[in-house]
């Protein structure tokens, strides 16, 4: 080996040794330099190495060494930085209290990478800065900054910033910022900002901001802001309110209405359409109830005053004796009148439109199925004895034509059929106003009976079994 100094060259034989000593000024070595020892110390200001590759731990046979790399001492922060491979051959960087003379590292604390461009298979930790290009690895940590390009990996942590491009991975954490492009992954956390494009993943958390485009995933949480586009997923509201949506259609889970008055109910009198029925707008005075009309398949309001006979009304029994209507029980039988083509009609709206030029009937007997009592504000007195509400259906004859209509349609001169099968002319009709109770009952068969000797139908606007009271 030849040592070159400022005074010249010194040729050394292979066996030459230096026990102790130093070189002053510059030292030049031609050939290979082998240094045996435990520590090599270089105290220059800057070290320039022209080698393209530097080998570390090249000939070590120590299998217990868990880390290999560089330790950068930092006298200011009080802790050093290690860069290299861990015992699983992962490239790592972190803070450590180990010095350059240590044989292993046991206290590594990972540190953040800061830079403009980086390419990783997967990231465990935070990614801060603008992210673009093609991303196929997972991010376990926070992604902060604008994210664009193609993203196929999952983000476990918060994604903060504007997010565009194609995203097929899941986000477990909060997604904050404007979100556009195609998103097929789930978001478990809050999605805050304007959201557009095509979204097929679920959002478990709150979606805050304007949301447009095509959304096929479910939202479990609060949806706040204007929501437009096509939404085929479910919104499970676990708290708060949905704002920005008005008059949501019934098919989408809404009512189709923007407001509803006090004392109103929602009914469906048409397919997939709800309407508001306001009890105060029913056109009726007094208390009202809802009832269903089978003929029109609709629901409407009506008053309890539209039914039946007053207390004390005499009902004819099969033996021609009479009993007050309020004293009847379900064990009683009453005298009825079976009429061809009439007794089998079950729709009162059809019955009220019947007009016959002749009517054939015969006396019969029927049991009682139901009995009702309701209040009324007004009633009629016919021929000074029959006291009945205006909506009760009564048989009468007018100009030799036979009818079954509401009592309010009777005229002076009309004829009522009595329990002797004789028609009597109506001589007087008086309307009385005042609160009182009225009664009616439903028959097992034939549908007619005699009240104050006159033939009446058991149909009323509300109380009959065929009226389908709600």
Strand content: 35-45%
Please give the order of strands in the largest beta sheet: 8-11-14-17-20-23-26-29
Q: What percent of the residues sit in helical stretches (DSSP H or I)?
A: under 10%
CATH class of the largest domain: Mainly Beta
User: Looking at this structure, what is the CATH superfamily of the largest domain?
Assistant: Hedgehog/Intein (Hint) domain
CATH topology group of the largest domain? Endonuclease - Pi-scei, Chain A, domain 1
Number of helices: 1
Shape summary: rod-shaped
Number of E strands = 47
Question: What about the largest sheet?
Answer: 8 strands, parallel
How many structural domains can be distinguished in the coordinates?
3
Mind explaining what this structure looks like?
- By secondary structure, this protein is mainly beta.
- It folds into 3 domains: 67-111, no CATH class; 123-245, no CATH class; 306-467, Beta Complex (Endonuclease - Pi-scei, Chain A, domain 1), CATH 2.170.16.
- The protein contains 1 helix and 47 strands.
- An 8-stranded parallel β-sheet has the order 8-11-14-17-20-23-26-29, with no helix packed on it. Strands 9-12-15-18-21-24-27 form a 7-stranded parallel β-sheet, with no helix packed on it. Strands 10-13-16-19-22-25-28 form a 7-stranded parallel β-sheet, with no helix packed on it.
- β4 (68-72) and β5 form a beta hairpin.
- The longest helix has 4 residues, at 348-351.
- The relative contact order is 0.07.
- The model is unreliable at 462-470 (pLDDT under 50).
Provide a short characterization of the protein structure.
With 470 residues, the chain is mainly beta.
